[in-house]
UniProtKB/TrEMBL annotation:
Residues 50-108 form a coiled coil. Pfam families: Peptidase_M23. GO terms for molecular function: metalloendopeptidase activity. Keywords: Coiled coil, Membrane, Signal, Transmembrane, Transmembrane helix. This is M23ase beta-sheet core domain-containing protein. The keyword Cell membrane does not apply. InterPro entries: Cell_wall_metabolism_enzyme, Dup_hybrid_motif, M23ase_b-sheet_dom.
Amino acid sequence: MSNKKSWTIILSSGPQAPIKQFQLRKLVFYFSLGFVLMLFVVIAGLSLSLNEVTTEKQNLAVKLENTTAEMEKVKQDYLVLQQEALTVQQSIEEFKQLEERITNLSLDMPIDLDPDAQDGSGGLQFPKQYEEQVQQTSPMLEEIKRELPDLIEKFEDAFTRLSQYEQDLRTVPTIIPAEGRITSRFGNRRDPFNWNTRFHSGIDIAAPLNTPIYAAADGTVVMARNNGGYGLTVVIDHGSTYETLYAHLNRIDVEVGDKVKKGDTIGGMGTTGRSTGVHLHYEIKRDGEHIDPYLYMTFHERSQ
């Protein structure tokens, strides 16, 4: 080294080769090294960000696909229900038409009193067209008699199926479980505690303390207790398909084993457990898999 501010670098390719030397200033070296390190950090950061964006894009694509499938499933369920209602309505209309046909049959025949009738004869005289009227009416009655059993069978079948669909719909969580505003949707989001990206398995609804929480469908209470980070939690089993969860409650109004109806109050909104404020965390599982509750919460709006 020729001085304290620089290094002397000597290069030689062999004993007989000429020697090359040059000065490298320490400031330039440290600056270059710092620049390279900073560039490496920036590239690494960009790579991580790109990877995160790619992952987020893939997650959004999967979410979109799942959401589309859920919407199609709900749509098909509604179309089936709508078709059953239409079938019943058509059967009712056919009954009305049948009733009208029966009513319109002129079975009340007019009778005349002959004022010129002689004693011992005459009396009530039936009009001459009576026989013709009976002959015209009989085929209509026979036709109605033939149609009626089939019509009754169709109506009873349609009514039975509609009643079954109505009963099935009672166990589908199609109502909003609490009044308030949605503050967090289903899917990946930033964790409010550490800002890491995490999957949010439900929907958050914010409202004042003790806002009533309603059962989203008929079912049986299978959990009603403190549940770790979920705080005070109620879980309702709605049969073989659906299960709903209501978390962070301030109070619980039901017990395990209780039978609840759609719209029954099961508790009050709170901020128990791992929570940043008063809200309801609401989840729906279908066949054990988490699904977007929003599709079911807006079922009636989209059905109109």
